[in-house]
Amino acid sequence: MNFLYNIFIHFLIFGMKVFSLFNDKTKKSVEGRKHSLKRVQEKFLSSDKVIWMHAASLGEYEQGLPVLEKLKENFPNHKILITFFSPSGYENVVKKKHMADVVCYLPFDRKKSVSEFLSQFDCEIFFTVKYDYWYHLLAELKNRNIKTFVVSALFYESQSFFTTYGKWFAKQLKKNITWFFHQTEQSYVLAKSIGLLNSSVSGDTRFDRVRQLKIRNNHLDFVEDFISGNKTVVFGSSWQAEEKIAQMVYVKNNDVKLIIAPHDLKRVENLRGIFPEAILYSNLKNSSILKSSNSQTLIIDSIGLLSKLYSYADVAVVGGGFHDAGLHNILEAATFGVPVIFGNQYKKNPEADGLILANGGRSFGDEKSAAEFVSELLNKGKELKEMSENAERFVNEKPNSTELIINKMLSL
């Protein structure tokens, strides 16, 4: 099986290199990996004690960050390494202020590449987030007696581990992982069914992360002036489907303010075509524009503001759930006591099912039904208040996962 895995990695690398000729994101991923070894060589000595977090993409990074921050508190003299598999995670984090000494792409999972990478520093703790597993990486970590963890682990029945051909890799996880911290009881039970007994249920660290959002300063200049006391719907990380919902809500509710933060700033021009009277966030500071405009719509043409914008919302519509792009973070809105609306084409998002069950959120199969519900909810004070309270309670009642994880890590 080792031989077959190496063949798989060979074809994966070859396929990514070919695809990079036509896809900009894949090109960034392939080119970025050429610099990973150099990055650690420049920043780390072979004697440096390092805590290493790996995240497939941005969502996993957000899940792992509370744990990384607490580990840094416990080991203040250790250096921090964060690696990503995807460019969406790497590009977002490397451009922002972060706590890491090095942020880079995870090297391709070839035995020689992984060994050379790990030889540049003294890794004491490694953890991956959710489910990004690589055989040579895990084997080399075990070979060097490095404590290796999986934070917010999520196993589900359709994974290859539960097939005949996937049993080999499940055995590698059993042999090489020190401890699994599961998000859900179901994940824990599934892991035990394939012999992964070194595990416990700790919950989802994202709840810890979003609870921190409420206690910071969430003020954004001029947003309150734009809202001016009106009911407000925030469309977070919107795609085309959510833009359609915004259009329908706009037509039916002339006294409701809409704030639209697209998932990609390239969609700003498209939004300006749909809402020609809209104000751009970058122009809000111009008081004359704000005073002379009766615009219902604010288009966010800046990044990094969405989690603060949710604090101004009465209802949130979160993107990604009407197609296979992947549902964006619904907890950032729910933590502020905001009912969350999203599409029903989401996978591997237990928090979405939980929020619906708690009646703090609702999913829909089409844009029209979602828009009608939003319009109705805005005009039903009792129901709106109830859903708001349920959303906030759903977040607040979850355990402090980070504390459970850190205590167990330190004990091991």
Verbal overview:
With 412 residues, the chain is an alpha/beta fold. The strands form two sheets. Strands 3-2-1-4-5-6-7 form a seven-stranded parallel sheet, with helices on both faces. The mean pLDDT is 93. β10 (279-280), α14 (287-292) and β11 form a beta-alpha-beta unit. It has helices at 2-19, 24-33, 36-43, 58-74, 87-94, 111-118, 135-143, 167-176, 185-193, 205-213, 223-227, 240-252, 268-274, 287-292, 306-309, 331-334, 350-357, 367-378, 381-396, 401-411; strands spanning 49-55, 79-84, 102-105, 122-129, 147-153, 179-182, 199-201, 232-238, 257-262, 279-280, 297-299, 315-318, 340-343, 361-364.
End-to-end Cα distance, whole Å, is 31 Å
Task: State the helical fraction.
Answer: 40-55%
Q: Helix tally?
A: 20
Helix and strand composition category = alpha/beta
Q: Which parts are unreliable, with pLDDT below 50 for 5 consecutive residues or more? A: none
Largest sheet: 7 strands, parallel
DSSP, total strands: 14
Q: Radius of gyration in whole Å, from Cα?
A: 23 Å
Mean pLDDT: 93
Going across the major beta sheet, what is the strand order?
Answer: 3-2-1-4-5-6-7
Strand content: 15-25%
| Dominant shape | globular
Task: Summarize, please.
Helix content is 47%, strand content 17%. The protein is an alpha/beta fold.
Layout of strands and helices, then pairs:
Layout: H1 2-19, H2 24-33, H3 36-43, E1 49-55, H4 58-74, E2 79-84, H5 87-94, E3 102-105, H6 111-118, E4 122-129, H7 135-143, E5 147-153, H8 167-176, E6 179-182, H9 185-193, E7 199-201, H10 205-213, H11 223-227, E8 232-238, H12 240-252, E9 257-262, H13 268-274, E10 279-280, H14 287-292, E11 297-299, H15 306-309, E12 315-318, H16 331-334, E13 340-343, H17 350-357, E14 361-364, H18 367-378, H19 381-396, H20 401-411
Helix pairs in contact: 4-5, 4-10, 4-20, 6-7, 7-8, 12-18
